[in-house]
Design goal:
The chain is mainly β. It is about 0% helix and about 75% strand.
């Protein structure tokens, strides 16, 4: 069964230099469903220059994947205690990103799902920042 949801995502990068933390927050309408014992949230975001990016989050209690398709494409996999690599494809060129996940948490009830992911990010094999993503999915 599919449900209409409101997807709130807060991202934080703790930069190496003081005062350079970066925060991003988005809120979008989307769809939630379960297939083969995995949960999915699908939504669209408007990026720079009105480019539409289709996003999908696949998750369970201790695993999360984030895929984006469009002019800015990416497939990030978060598994606690594992490092994964992916290419971030942009109209300006591709960037190699490393994701070293330290924590994945997911709490669910009937009308809301809260997820948190903590990880270290590398860009082109060099440490860039410690990061955190908080995601809330609420029925509407």
């Amino acid at each position: 069964m599919k449900k209409d949801v409101l997807v709130s995502i807060k991202g934080l990068q703790y930069a190496l230099a003081e005062g350079e933390d970066q925060r991003v927050e988005t809120i979008n309408r989307g769809t939630f469903y379960t297939r083969n014992k995995k949960n999915y949230v699908v939504y669209e975001e408007t990026m720079a220059e009105d480019a539409i990016v289709k996003s999908m989050v696949k998750f369970d209690d201790n695993y999360l994947e984030l895929s984006r398709k469009g002019p800015f494409s990416l497939h990030m996999t978060f598994e606690e205690g594992k490092k994964n690599y992916t290419e971030y494809k942009t109209p300006y060129g591709d960037i190699m990103i490393g994701i070293d996940t330290t924590a994945v948490r997911c709490l669910q009830n009937e009308n809301e799902i809260n997820m948190a992911v903590e990880y270290d990010m590398e860009v082109n094999y060099e440490h860039l920042a410690r990061c955190r993503i908080d995601m809330s999915v609420k029925s509407i």
